[in-house]
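Following the same procedure, the fold was encoded as tokens, giving this record:
***
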Amino acid sequence: MTIRIGTRNSALAIWQAEHVQKALSPLPTEIVGISTKGDQDQNTPLHQLGQTGVFTKAIDQALLEGKVDIGVHSLKDYPTQIPEGLALIAVLERDEYHDVFIPSETPGDDFFVRDLLIASGSPRRRAQWLARYPNHRFTELRGNMHTRLERMAMMDGGIVSKAGLTRLGILPDKHITLDWMIPAPAQGIIAIVGRIDDIRIHETIRSVNHLPSFQAATIERDFMAEIEAGCAAPLGALAQFRGDHFRFSGILNSLDGRVSVRTEKQVSLNNWKEAGQNFAQHILKIGGREIMKTLRQP
């Protein structure tokens, strides 16, 4: 039986689905493109669309209706509240997780001290950048990767995911990897979602699961869920596999970057399942709760 792979229609999403196809080879597969709300509205800032899952709900619905057998997603875009009847079956090995700055010109010694206009639609990227460069200003950035590169060239630069540009082979030579910026939870991880009761698919798909990446994603997503911060919150989390433990970095910022709380922790492989929730409780106690109250204000 052919496995039908549900995915968005963007070039990056198709690349991800084809990557899953290769992982499942030689099993017969078919890619089914699905239009999502996030694809249909390319102008409204994501945090203003008023709901979670703008890139995933249509694919989830197709799964529940039996139109596809699995859904492939960038896990950083997938809500921590998984719809009833569905489950995160597997993830592929984590790819590049860093963010990158793409300047419109080759930066000189005084480039970053200038009053720059930066393109980014991510509150997380904006907040961490403003914490370092408070004199800079931001403008929205939406669209596919090619559109984003064109728009960034009209500004002083922009911030995007390195993985997306690398996967499409369009990473500019003059990019600057932001190794100091903590990524979004599960950034750089491709996820495979299926129906809970589809035992055949579960048994097939689990063979491609990369356990350390799955564990890291769980820690990071549990951290976000416990803080009750959605995908649009200025929150970063990264769990890195270190052989016998995970090294965790987490951060929560105010929108303007002026206030932030950060934690650096280590957890053994025996305790990874509770780690994300524990780290979240710690960051809430050291100031995160006050930041979240401010973020929830209308």
Observations:
- Residues 7 and 148 are 21 Å apart (CA to CA).
- The mean pLDDT is 93.
- The domain at 99-178 is CATH 3.40.190.10 (D-Maltodextrin-Binding Protein; domain 2).
- The chain is about 35% helix and 25% strand.
